Description:
Helix content is 80%, strand content 0%. The chain is mostly helical. Helix 2 packs antiparallel against helix 9 (212-233), helix 5 runs antiparallel to helix 7 and helix 5 packs across helix 10.
Amino acid sequence: LFAGSRVLEAAIIILGIILAVRLARIPLPNFRPSAQILRGFLRQGLPILLSAIAYTVFLRMDQIMLAALTSEAELGVYSLSLRLAEALNFVPVMIALAFYPHLTRLYESAKAAYEAELHFLFDVMAVVSAGLILIIWVVAAGVLAPLFGEAYARSAGIAAVLALAIPFVALGLARSSVFTITGQVWLPLAVWSGPVAVNFAGNLLLIPLLSAYGAAISTVLSLVIAHLGTSFLFPALRRHGPAMRGALNLTRSAPRVLKRLGLLSGDEGRNPPVG
């Protein structure tokens, strides 16, 4: 049922795009079945599709297990917290999309420059994430209970815990360019298989003890493993692990970002050797 709903959703989106293109009178080439294109999709696109399904299962796992192990009220509190904690995730998504063409060109022309720019993107993501966490904390503390009532007062604390995952999600979005630009399309599926299992086990252990807080803690720990821990586990990602970890030290990454923006001069923003 879940897989079928995702296929239906994709079909609706495709039909919507086709309709929009037709209404805009943008000419489209005639459709011709191609075995070569189909083979290319299966080779390049199928692994990404499977990893996206695994990620979606990961995101929904907490709510399913909360409903099974606690109560609908606890599920409602957690769902509200999750919505707030994820509300600003579009910001790192847009940053990653903005950097992607530039990183692709660098990889094709100068791989050393590509890695340096990718590591700078880690710095940007870490600095931006710190600001996003502060926004989520302020909104959670000041808005949730007055807006939704005292029954949802606990959502503020749960959202504050879930917000701690933002830097790791942002770093993972930055790192995702490695999978597509370098052609390692099967790697994301391997990356996500472990955290899904960890989150399942964490929920089984923590939800009975801490209810929605347990689900939040399990989710954050799983995302740390998925986006940072795996960078030290897989050989293809190990050269990026120290840079991702170093970006989380804002006393080092923030000066580098400020210097790049021209807001800081001197040696404070100089990139240290990564290793």
